[in-house]
Write a structure and sequence with these properties.
Belongs to the acyl-CoA dehydrogenase family. Pfam families: Acyl-CoA_dh_1, Acyl-CoA_dh_N. Helix content is 50%, strand content 16%. The strands form 3 sheets. Strands 1, 2, 3, 4, 5, 6 and 7 form a 7-stranded mixed β-sheet that branches. Helix 4 packs parallel to helix 9, helix 4 runs antiparallel to helix 10 and helix 9 runs antiparallel to helix 12. The two termini are 27 Å apart.
Length: 405
């Protein structure tokens, strides 16, 4: 593994950071989350047109850049630093790879150019299971199917004119504004029951009801999506179980999420160091006190370690390891990054003193992102437990005992 970034990768980072510094300050972020879309649509189109951000993972023949998980992780770190509200995760990291890998020739030709240009955004609706469970990053609690049983989640039934969906999905990332929904739905009976993926175009389909949810972190909008006998199109030419398909995305998505969390932690630490240099106590900056220096040094080491883990996970997802191994590595990297972001933003609140917890201060935005991500994509201990299980770290000798190999 070559740990150095290529010239092209360094250029992607530099160009994205420069544009976000100009167009995505904290004031712009606060304004963007209040818009109906939950993000600055003009900025997203600009990022797509000038930097190819929306099409990073799309092949060049469909108008994309043709990059891999490392470039997506680089973009994730920079957008995390800026707390950019954007469709990067829901559209670029989740929905686009599913269409590219499963879609028919017609579906890819129709949808991928529009996704790559930023004209179309997409969201993945997973009723019955949190995202990390569906991606195979944590083990499911209990035996419930990942998209609900025969009486829950979203149900699909075949009709003479195609497929119809009925049900509800909660906590759909960008689900309130996405122009395309990829819905996991249960079909079949007890014997041949399975989960399939369907395409739903809300602007064209009757019976789609979407409501934006009130969430802790407004920069990561979520929605509840209700489908009331909605016409849908099967994603792909044949019926493939959604569970296995989604699990193959675990490694790349975990790498992007880990890099995002690293960006959040790094930006919070940078702001805290700057504050420690100017905030005076007893006639001297608080950053000159040894105790504060040690705390900041520990946070710096934690951020660097999490960054190394995130980019190792991106390398593994890009072909350095098979999908199962990449998912285990990605889960560990995500656990470390989430834990680091939580620790760093919590320390940032404390070192800023009373102003750190006020609504008007910027540092609380980073704390909310870290806390929200830990709930959405963790918990950390289950990420690590799943990785240990995948690596065969523990062998169960009977029902009461487990030994370390």
């Amino acid at each position: 593994m070559d740990a150095a970034f290529s010239e092209e990768q360094a250029g992607i980072r530099a160009a994205l950071r420069e544009l976000l510094l100009k167009r995505c300050g904290v004031a712009e972020v606060r304004a963007a989350v209040l818009t109906p879309a939950g993000h600055d649509e003009g900025l997203w189109r600009q990022l797509a047109e000038r930097l190819g951000l929306a099409g990073l993972a799309v092949e060049q023949r469909y108008g994309g850049v043709g990059c891999g998980p490392t470039e997506l992780a680089l973009a994730g770190e920079e957008t995390g630093r800026a707390l950019l509200p954007s469709p990067l995760l829901a559209t670029t990291a989740l929905a686009t790879p599913l269409i590219a890998s499963l879609g028919t020739t017609e579906q890819r030709a129709e949808l991928l150019p529009r996704l790559a240009s930023g004209e179309l955004t997409a969201a993945l609706a997973l009723p019955g299971a949190p995202l990390p469970v569906a991606l195979g990053l944590v083990g499911p609690e209990g035996a419930a199917p990942p998209v609900g049983g025969r009486a829950g989640g979203v149900q699909a039934r075949r009709t003479p004119d195609g497929w119809r969906l009925y049900g509800e999905a909660g906590q759909v990332l960008d689900g309130h504004s996405a122009g395309l929904l990829i819905v996991a739905a249960h079909t079949g009976g007890y014997v041949d029951g399975r989960a399939l993926l369907f395409l739903v175009r809300p602007a064209e389909a009757r019976g789609v009801v979407r409501a934006r949810l009130t969430v802790m972190d407004e920069t990561r909008p979520q929605a509840r999506v209700q489908l009331r006998d909605v016409r849908a199109e099967l994603l792909g030419a044949r019926e493939r179980d959604a569970w296995g398909v989604l699990a193959a995305l675990g490694g790349p998505v975990a790498a992007v999420l880990a890099a995002e969390a690293v960006g959040v932690a790094d930006a919070a630490l940078e702001r805290t160091v700057g504050y420690a240099r100017v905030r005076e106590q007893f006639g001297r900056p608080i950053g000159s006190f040894q105790a504060v220096k040690h705390r900041l040094a520990d946070l710096h080491v934690a951020v660097q370690g999490a960054r190394s883990a995130a980019y190792y996970a991106a390398w593994a997802a890009g072909g350095g390891q098979p999908p199962s191994g990449a998912a285990a590595v990605g889960g560990l990297a995500l656990a470390q990054a989430l834990e680091t972001a939580w620790t760093v933003t919590g320390e940032a609140i404390q070192l800023h003193g009373g102003i750190g917890v006020t609504w008007e201060h910027d540092v609380q935005l980073y704390f909310k992102r870290a806390a929200s991500d830990a709930l959405l994509f963790g918990p950390v201990h289950r990420l690590r437990a799943r990785a240990a299980e995948a690596a065969g770290l523990f062998a169960v000798t009977d029902e009461r005992e487990a030994v370390v190999l």
